[in-house]
Amino acid sequence: MDKIIVKGGTGLNGQIPISGAKNACLTLMPAALLSEEPLTLTNAPSLSDIRTMTQLLESLGCEVASLQGGRVLAIGTERISNHKADYDIVRKMRASILVLGPMLARDGEAVVSLPGGCAIGARPVDIHLTGLEALGAELDLRDGYVHAKATGGLKGAVYTMPFASVGATENLLMAATLAKGTTVLKNVAREPEIVDLAKCLRAMGANIEGEGTETLTIEGVDKLHGATHQVVTDRIELGTYMIAPMITNGEVELLGGRRDLVESFSQKLEAAGAEITQTDTGLRVKRVSERIQPVDVVTEVHPGFPTDLQAQMMALLTLADGTSVLEERIFENRFMHAPELQRMGANIEVHGGTATVHGVSKLKGAPVMATDLRASISLILAGLAAEGETVVSRVYHLDRGYEHVVRKLSGVGANIERVPENQ
Ligand code: EPZ
Q1: Which strands make up the sheet holding 2-7, listed edge to edge?
Q2: Which domains does the chain have, with CATH numbers?
Q3: Residues 66-69: contacts with CB within 8 Å, 24+ apart?
Q4: Cβ(77)–Cβ(105) under 8 Å?
Q5: Probe residue for ligand 1, chosen from 19, 330, 371, 377 as the CB with the greatest number of ligand atoms within 8 Å
Q6: Per-residue model confidence as pLDDT tens digits over 238-263
Q7: Helix 166-176 vs helix 100-107: angle between axes, to the nearest 10 degrees?
Q8: Is the distance from CB of 178 to CB of 34 less than 8 angstroms?
Q9: pLDDT tens across 387-414, in order?
């Protein structure tokens, strides 16, 4: 296991290219299962989660060509020789559940391991399952697997989600494209990754309306054909790196950044003292206030403040000129970065789903441990501003969702390196 060493105190200046969205790619890849013709994805990020999804699709009989250093994924799904998604792959990445809907829709059968929880919460898939049953699937849960059948195919239905689950919306949207008749999905997720998925499915011949709103209407079609689709920019990586010039008092342009992908986050960052300018090539961010200003944050489904940017915002607010309150409403255990930030001198009180951050004038570098993907990058952001050296261990968490972190941050002047754990 590697570790990352950051020596803080340098104002970051320059440009950071933003990659394609991990959370879009992880639903676009299973969408390939809906057609016997190949789906080609461009602007794909080169990440361990993408390699895990590739492994899963290959275990089902797909061919996945990863070209141009992982930027282009050509997925051939002429036939699915195996309809079982094994636990040993699914346990590594929960998004594996997203092969369930497409396999059911295409072949009327699927056996998918239940993903189990992860560090940030139990993360059940009950909404995925009740939604598929509404579309006529017969599900049998036994020995940790969902055994699913749709004899005669899925049938269109009206289904209202109890919660606007991102993954459940993606699974049901994909399944409905091949269901017989009309499907109306209500109270669905509105994230940009859902909009991107709908665009790709439409390019494959699907008949979809309403993406980005709380209701999706899908007219089932008999077959989908192949397509080429460019993966949307990663708004979570974008938001993460927008914090870098704020926390180090520099000025950075995020190439490919679009304000509409991070509107609610940008409003909070401006309240904290950022000036955000849309340029022809991306988003330029710099701090215009003397000190970082405290702001209160509540994480919500899109278009609210993204839960995936909560840890990064907390790192910034540890240095604010006052007290900020962060409320995590999406996951039940997403403050594991707080004790690590406290080791660096942050003053944070956590009570259940609420963290109260009393700003301090400086952080001091320390050895800290990454516990989950977004917590790990929040420790690096804190290290960029801290006095002295911060050593972040267990950085395999980072590799799941952040491509070339060391290269991107050293490219704007950060003093950062990656070394083997035992060095
Ligand atoms: C997606 O996870 C993202 N992952 C997550 O990003 C992101 O945090 C999350 O959406 C929320 O925005 C991918 O897209 C691969 P949910 P997902 O279903 O689909 C509960 C990252 O850091 N729920 O919207 O699993 C669930 O327990 C990752 O990139 C049910 O109760 O999110 C959670 O509390 C982390 N039953 C809440 O809803 C269900 O059937 C949000 O889950 C499904 C979800």
Answers
A1: 367-369, 389-393, 2-7, 415-420
A2: 2-19+234-420 (3.65.10.10), 22-230 (3.65.10.10)
A3: none
A4: no
A5: 330
A6: 999 999 999 999 999 999 999 999 99
A7: 10
A8: yes
A9: 999 999 999 999 999 999 999 999 999 9
Scanning the structure block, which residue is given the tokens 């898939």?
125
**Chain Cα centroid distance, residue 189:** 14
d(CA 246, CA 336): 23
| Annotation says 200 is catalytic | no
- The tokens of 286 are what? 């710099």
Burial class (CB in 10 A: 0-12, 13-18, 19+), 130: middle
Rounded to 10 deg, the angle between the 310-317 and 373-385 helix axes is: 20
Measure 124 CA to ligand 1 centroid, in angstroms. 9
3-state class (DSSP) for residue 382? helix
Residue of the nearest CA to atom 16 in ligand 1? 165
What is the DSSP pairing of strand 389-393 with strand 367-369?
parallel
Give residue 122's pLDDT band: very low, low, confident or very high (50, 70, 90). Answer: confident
Task: Using most ligand atoms within 8 A of CB, pick from 130, 166, 190, 335 the residue to mutate for ligand 1.
Answer: 166
* Nearest alpha carbon, ligand 1 atom 19: 167
Residue 289 tokens read as: 């206030």
**Does the pLDDT of residue 322 top 80, yes or no?**
yes
Ligand 1 midpoint to CA 374 (Å): 13
Per-residue pLDDT of 336-369, as tens digits, reads 999 999 999 999 999 999 999 999 999 999 999 9
Task: Tell me how far apart the alpha carbons of residues 262 and 199 are, in angstroms, rounded to a whole number.
Answer: 19
Torsion of CA 123, 127, 130, 131, to 10 degrees: -140
How far is ligand 1, taken at its centre, from the CA of residue 399, in Å? 19
Using the structure block, give the residue that is written with the tokens 């209202």: 160
Residue 246 φ/ψ, nearest 5 degrees: -70, -45
Among protein residues, the one with the nearest Cα to ligand 1's atom 17 is 167
CA 66 distance to own-chain centroid: 20
321 CA → ligand 1 middle, Å: 33
Using CA atoms, how far apart are residues 235 and 306, in angstroms rounded to an integer? 10
Q: Which residues line ligand 1 (CB under 6 A)?
A: 23, 26, 94-95, 121-128, 163, 165-168, 307-308, 330-331, 373-374, 401
